[in-house]
Design a protein that fits this description.
Aspartate Aminotransferase, domain 1; 7-stranded mixed sheet; 13 strands; 4-stranded antiparallel sheet; single chain; alpha/beta; Aspartate Aminotransferase, domain 2; 15 helices
């Protein structure tokens, strides 16, 4: 979880300026052992140096810089469209803008402004009601329970809707993905209602292991898909919307109207191309090892005598998952930071937030750094962490 509610779980986290948040960031940077070290944790100098080193391998730097979406931007768009098996793609500065534009375009084409979605999806949790206030759309919740919607809920929705939006994976519910059969049934149910299907695929890149399908086959179920470049792929920012060429042409017109036609974007686009080259091929390895880490966490908490603990989902669907423990968020946050400060091993590098009476939750992500951890390493870190929880609770 991040230090702000915008990219968190919808629950309140401490502001970025509080001492505990600053201490956590310092512990992240100083940690010698950590499960994930996203580039966002680096300094400006470090991020620029890494980009300068990698950029010559992904694009000819002697070509002219982009202007208003040409050149390198078009190269990225073509590559992403190919990866996802769609006719065309449009680069956007943010995923929020990309999805609002996509849903607005579909509403115009279907003649129906109603968007059926999950109550824990990103537009409902983190966009300040932008679908209604900016785009004139009307979201209708299939469910708000911390689970995936069902095909029956799509079929039984008591009013017509023009678009079904599915967030894959559903981050705030625990990075959940349906089975392939469930996903195809959801899409079929929408088709039966004469609706189009849009995938919020911010983290779709890491779904191939769970679905046992290539990206283009997964994306092929939907009429349009949005993907992010800064989450799984560790880019600076940015997103892409893919779909039929006529839709993408219209989306680019709306991108201009929404203020997304930036003069130059080559640093961000270069970082996205680097992510596609370096991170995308490694995501299946991260997902596989996340399952090893999750199992070791469950075992470690049981061995340490924690009265109740939950790793959710029990077998992670992606390389990210939730951990729930029966302690206050302040106690768990203090124990996590102290472990990093005192041992240079940071088991939980994201913040803890209240998840209900007597419960707190955090998110765990596994990237390249986490591949060095064995199951024994995880269990040993859990034992040390639980001891620090007891100490923090006594203060």
């Amino acid at each position: 979880m991040s230090d702000t509610a915008e990219h968190g779980t919808g629950r309140t986290t401490e502001p970025a300026a509080t001492p505990s948040a600053a201490r956590r960031r310092a512990a992240q940077r100083a940690a010698e052992r950590i499960l994930a070290r996203p580039g966002v944790q680096g300094t400006i100098r470090e991020r620029l140096a890494a980009l300068a080193e990698a950029a010559p391998d992904v694009y000819d730097l002697d070509k002219s810089a982009d202007m208003y979406g040409d050149g390198i931007v078009e190269a990225l768009e073509e590559r992403v469209a190919g990866l996802l098996g769609k006719e065309a793609a449009a680069f956007f500065p943010t995923g929020t803008m990309a999805q609002q534009v996509a849903l607005r375009c579909w509403a115009g084409r279907t003649g129906n402004p109603v968007v059926a979605l999950h109550g824990m999806s990103h537009p409902e949790m983190h966009e300040r009601n932008a679908l209604e206030r900016v785009s004139g759309l009307r979201p209708v919740r299939l469910t708000s329970d911390p689970r995936l919607p069902t095909a029956e809920e799509v079929r039984d929705l008591d009013e017509p809707f023009g678009t079904l939006m599915l967030e894959l994976p559903l981050r705030d519910a625990g990075f959940l993905l349906p089975s392939w059969q469930q996903l195809t049934e959801l899409v079929e149910a929408a088709r039966e209602r004469d609706a189009v299907v849009h995938f919020d695929g911010a983290r779709l890149w890491e779904s191939t292991t769970h679905f046992e399908r290539p990206l283009d086959e997964i994306a092929g179920l939907a009429d349009s898909v949005y993907v992010s470049f800064y989450k799984s792929l560790d880019g600076f920012a940015g997103a892409a919307l893919v779909g039929p060429r006529t839709l993408i042409d219209e989306a680019k017109a709306w991108r201009h109207r929404y203020g997304g036609q930036l003069f130059q974007q080559f640093p961000t686009v270069l970082s996205a191309l680097v992510g596609l080259d370096r991170e995308l091929p490694r995501l299946p390895e991260y997902v596989a090892h996340a399952r090893v880490v999750a199992a070791a966490l469950r075992e470690g908490f049981a061995e340490a005598g924690v009265p109740w603990a939950r790793v959710h989902p029990e077998v992670p669907h992606t390389n990210e998952f939730q951990v729930w423990l029966p302690y206050g968020a302040d106690v768990l946050g203090e124990a996590a930071v102290r472990q990093g400060e005192e041992t240079k091993t940071l088991l939980f590098h994201r913040g803890w937030v209240p998840g209900g009476p007597g419960l707190s939750v955090t998110e765990v992500g596994v990237r390249a750094e986490g591949l060095e951890w064995t199951a024994d390493d995880v269990r040993a870190a859990v034992t040390d962490f639980v001891a620090r929880v007891a100490e923090a609770g006594e203060r």
